[in-house]
Design brief:
344 residues, alpha/beta, Nucleotidyltransferase, domain 5, five-stranded mixed sheet
Length: 344
């Protein structure tokens, strides 16, 4: 995959991070993320506050990315922007800004699907961050985040076949809910991961039996809650004195279905090129266990750098480069789409 191409400004604003990147082909020149810390006090993202914060941050973040890339507006060949899915108010800020900028500079822009961008981030080249881009298609991608849990066969940049997905809650949401039960700060997934390093998996929960390659986390969340309630009745200080063990146990319970599903999917489709994507792909237990599986099964494994696991504009730029090469340019009448159009 060439690292040189059109100079694209990429914009991501689907949730609570305002991010702007500048790419030369698939070579990342800058990837700036402005995170909204205001949501921590509410224990989750407040949509209205998120959209207001995006409005304030979008222009300074664009300027910061251009400075870091040593580029100016007149150097841009086009713009790539997240069209959806995500929070409508947040999406509107980034998408409207992208259209306005494209119109004023008289350059084209391309729409990007947020989840597809996560899966295509493996094609990026950024010195010291990702020096080993994925070599090509197809590959099997485990996409795990606060809103999505999917096994996807990626046949091409615009050909995504969902092999299995959660039938209710996403694994990232389950991490955050479990963390809230343990009175941990938001976001809870990284906190559970950190604390689990000092604990052991000594508590066990009921795992749902799902057909084919489907996932379910609703029942598992309930099982975790009931186990906590039962244990606290017998040992009132358990959530404090055995906090690390609770975190380790919860982490193992939430990650195990992903490992089993990934193994089954790889065997089913016969693909040895495996990738992870999404915020939960930063989880240390998931990464270590998948690496062990890759070593045992002789997989060609691609783990995203931590800066690409969370929402960022560089991944939007990767998807944008593919769309640009196929001349899939957007129109000014196109609007932000809060819900995703799932590829068959």
């Amino acid at each position: 995959m060439t690292r040189s191409g059109p100079i694209l400004l990429a914009i991501e604003s689907s949730c609570d991070d305002t991010s702007v990147a500048v790419l030369d082909g698939f070579h990342v020149l800058a990837n700036v993320v402005h995170s909204q810390v205001i949501h921590e006090q509410y224990g989750g993202v407040v949509p209205e506050l998120a959209s207001r914060a995006h409005t304030e941050a979008i222009l300074p973040t664009v300027k910061a990315a251009l400075r870091r890339a040593a580029k100016q507006f007149q150097d841009l060949d086009g713009i790539a922007v997240t069209q959806g899915p995500g929070l409508l108010g947040s999406l509107l800020v980034g998408h409207s800004f992208a259209k306005s900028l494209a119109l004023s500079l008289e350059i084209p822009y391309v729409n990007v699907d947020h989840m597809e961008a996560h899966m295509l981030a493996h094609f990026l080249y950024e010195p010291g961050i990702q020096d080993k881009p994925i070599p090509g298609f197809p590959y099997l991608c485990l996409t795990v985040s606060g809103g999505h849990t999917q096994l996807v066969q990626v046949n091409d940049w615009n050909d995504f076949h969902v092999l299995g997905e959660t039938q209710d809650d996403a694994v990232g949401e389950a991490f955050d809910k479990a963390a809230k039960l343990l009175s941990l700060s938001y976001p809870g997934g990284p906190e559970i991961d950190r604390l689990a390093q000092g604990g052991e998996s000594v508590f066990h929960f009921s795992q749902p039996q799902m057909p084919d390659l489907q996932f379910s986390y609703s029942g598992l969340k309930t099982s975790i809650l009931r186990s906590m309630q039962k244990e606290v009745k017998e040992h009132p200080q358990s959530l404090d004195t055995q906090l690390a063990d609770w975190c380790a146990s919860i982490q193992v319970a939430l990650i195990t279905p992903l490992l089993e599903g990934l193994s089954q999917a790889a065997e089913l489709v016969g693909i040895q090129r495996i990738a992870l994507a999404g915020g939960v792909s930063a989880n240390s237990y998931l990464r270590s266990q998948v690496q062990k599986m890759a070593d045992a099964k002789d997989w060609e494994l691609y783990l995203p750098p931590f800066s690409y696991t969370t929402d960022n504009a560089a991944m939007v730029g990767a998807a944008g480069q593919f769309a640009w090469s196929a001349s899939r340019f957007a129109e000014m009448k196109d609007a932000a789409q809060p819900k995703r159009v799932v590829h068959a």
